[in-house]
Amino acid sequence: xxxxxxxxxxxxxxxxxxxxxxxxxxxxxxxxxxxxxxxxxxxxxxxxxxxxxxxxxxxxxxxxxxxxxxxxxxxxxxxxxxxxxxxxxxxxxxxxxxxxxxxxxxxxxxxxxxxxxxxxxxxxxxxxxxxxxxxxxxxxxxxxxxxxxxxxxxxxxxxxxxxxxxxxxxxxxxxxxxxxxxxxxxxxxxxxxxxxxxxxxxxxxxxxxxxxxxxxxxxxxxxxxxxxxxxxxxxxxxxxxxxxxxxxxxxxxxxxxxxxxxxxxxxxxxxxxxxxxxxxxxxxxxxxxxxx
Length: 292
Fold this sequence. Notes:
Mean pLDDT: 95
CATH class of the domain at 3-167 and 197-225 and 280-286: Alpha Beta
Low-confidence stretches: none
Strand content: 25-35%
CATH topology of the domain at 3-167 and 197-225 and 280-286: Rossmann fold
CATH superfamily of the domain at 3-167 and 197-225 and 280-286: Vaccinia Virus protein VP39
Radius of gyration: 20 Å
Number of strands: 10
Shape: globular
Order of helices and strands: HHEHEHHEEEEHEHHEEHHE
CATH architecture of the domain at 3-167 and 197-225 and 280-286: 3-Layer(aba) Sandwich
Number of helices: 10
């Protein structure tokens, strides 16, 4: 496993959770039954942050299928789920069938599956009431989004997709090269990430809203921006270094300029002067009629 990816997912979790639009969660949960188990599919689950965020926001009994191509990230899901359960006075049992979280009025089963999501196998959508993912849509192609909407529509599932980067960010204090680095990073975001072709990148949120509406869904979006205060030094440092790396890959001829920009931005972080805002969108989509 790429240990840096695991560390990055842990580092960003608090910012993701603080940014999310809970009003959109309510839009999809209002249409879910409280009498029968709610079946949820979580795409590109990583170490299960989206799972842990939504579990105590969904009604009734829950049955989750969490999917990722990295088996070692998935192997972390039970460990992190155990800490989540303990903090809420719940118990966790892990066996060959998956993870089971239990409490006096809470029941949730979690099954993980390692698979590549480049083709979106229709079988993982069967029986699902809700399809969800976090920090995914800007990595996929528009054609992938069309298949996703068709898969959800075929089973009558609602959808909730969060923390989709929209191409905008701001840094304070400003540096002259901020706009250049942002433009190069956004170009890098449109490279092929192995999910259906060149990624939609900053255009993904608008494409997803349009595509789900065309598939017959009622769609609502809301901002879910990271607002990173000066004390978030570790998170800011990794974010800025990632921007610089992507910008340099996009335009190697600007490497010296980008490196100097990176040095000055890190100096702001280390001095406790840096504030970053990274703009994202959340999207909820639900069908205006009962499931088939």
